[in-house]
Recover the amino acids of this structure.
């Protein structure tokens, strides 16, 4: 059973803190890198629970930027369990695409611009930010293809209850336990969030990089 709470603005949330760990690509196996993330998330969750907060554990399964999908949510849950932790929800990244398009619609039009992609017949949509252009996605013969930065911004906002994605549980605060190599993408995602009407939500997001 899921117990629903309400934040100060009356928005329904499923817990106090949502913790993301072990970001996994669907064409790889559960490795020591993921196990390290789970171990850190377990410590963070225990500390929060000892302070009286409710916690949910999430894993984002990247089923977009892969050539084949081999890893299943069941296998991810088993890998997390073997690390002495548990995962409440495994979310496919593809479930964020429609919400990502809705997020673009909230961004200031004057700060959006297209650039041609030199090595392929497609155009890339950018957001102008104080730190330079941030790519949001590309348009070619096939449908709009969002970038990792746009998907991460959508993922974070969905977890915070700012953008509705039915597959994603919401929380008052969110924490992401990620490898250091994801820091740059998370920074670009923050720039997208800060350009949107949901910029205040960024204060409820924290990271643990390892």
């Amino acid at each position: 059973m899921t117990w629903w709470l309400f934040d100060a603005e009356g928005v329904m949330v499923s817990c106090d803190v949502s913790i993301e760990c072990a970001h996994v690509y669907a064409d790889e196996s559960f490795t020591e890198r993921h196990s390290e993330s789970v171990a850190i998330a377990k410590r963070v969750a225990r500390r929060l629970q000892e302070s009286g907060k409710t916690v949910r554990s999430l894993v984002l399964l990247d089923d977009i930027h892969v050539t084949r999908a081999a890893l299943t949510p069941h296998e991810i849950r088993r890998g997390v369990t073997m690390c002495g932790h548990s995962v409440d929800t495994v979310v496919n990244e593809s479930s964020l695409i429609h919400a990502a398009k809705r997020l673009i619609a909230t961004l200031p039009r004057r700060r959006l611009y297209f650039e041609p992609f030199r090595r392929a017949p497609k155009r890339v949509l950018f957001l102008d930010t104080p730190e330079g252009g941030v790519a949001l996605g590309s348009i070619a013969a096939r449908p709009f293809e969002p970038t990792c930065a746009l998907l991460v911004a959508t993922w974070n906002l969905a977890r915070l209850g700012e953008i509705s994605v039915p597959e994603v549980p919401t929380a008052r605060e969110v924490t992401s336990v990620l490898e250091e190599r994801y820091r740059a993408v998370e920074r670009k995602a923050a720039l997208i969030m800060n350009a949107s009407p949901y910029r205040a939500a960024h204060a409820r997001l924290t990271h643990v990089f390892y």
Summary: Residues 6-11 have pLDDT under 50 and may be disordered. DSSP finds five helices and twelve strands in the chain. The helical segments are 32-50, 73-82, 97-106, 148-159, 183-195.
